[in-house]
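*Target chain*
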Amino acid sequence: MRRREFIAALGGVATTAWPLMLGAQQSARRPVVGFLHGGLKVESAHVVGGFGRGLSEVGFVEGRNVEIQYCFAEGHYDRLPALAAELVSRHIDVLAAVGGVQTALAAKSASTTIPVVFGNGSDPVQFGLVESLNRPGGNLTGISYFTATLEAKRLGLLSELVPGAGVFGILVNSKNDNADNQLKDIAQGALSISRPIAILTASNEQEIEAAFQAFAKQGISALLVGSDPYFASQREKIIALAARYKFPVISEWREFAQAGGLASYGTNVVDNYRLVAVYVGRILKGEKSADLPVVQATKFEFVINLKTAKTLGLTLPPGPLSTADEVIE
């Protein structure tokens, strides 16, 4: 073959191969993760950070090799089904449904094929999210930290911290799908400590303020804020109201105690989101949600804010102080 003919032939190969190579590059895309949360976006930076750290542990970095589509219900749980359907319509690869069992239920209804990784404090078997913890089946798996089943435990701790208290106030979000279970747990806890309780519900800022006013009129001595993602994202407001009315408060996350609540008892919420993200990354790498057992939280933290106790004029008994995992001074 003459040199000119060889160059011409090589050019012909190049012109036919280039479009195929370009098409291959265009077809390669970053996987897309949907992130559905029931709480407020503005108060969720710390848990979103935990989610990002979990993804990085399995080799995914947002904006580099994975895209994340965020949707927050802002405490309006009735919006979750539409938000879940919207995320599914964006052709996501995995859906992270976090911030309450209602988020996971919305995700389950939105798709039977897209893998869903949930993270919430309710019993996933009881709510029909999975067939069993070890063998989830279907397209859902996730992290269960059972904080919503610990209301009686928190009520008992509150009675130890404030042994002279009379009536205990209980604040529950009636829009939370787990509210009935929480109330049953609270009723059992009240029987075990032999104390009267006053239960009020709230699902928005105005109702929270009204509940505190009502608690003050009822003369409660201490307050249990029920496990709920909206309450968690409203913790600054709740703690400010508790300070105004001088209510010792206990709730699920350490962030409540750090913000000025008297105490908290639960798992580490940031680490929970990290674990959710690790499962998301494993699914992106090819594992099946049906084969990934539900992870159960095993470490629970009891945090006491001694500074808040002093502000409220409380002298805490040595018993709970000695069993606390952390005392904020």
Notes: The first helix runs from residue 3 to 27. DSSP finds 13 helices and 13 strands in the chain. The longest strand covers residues 32-37.
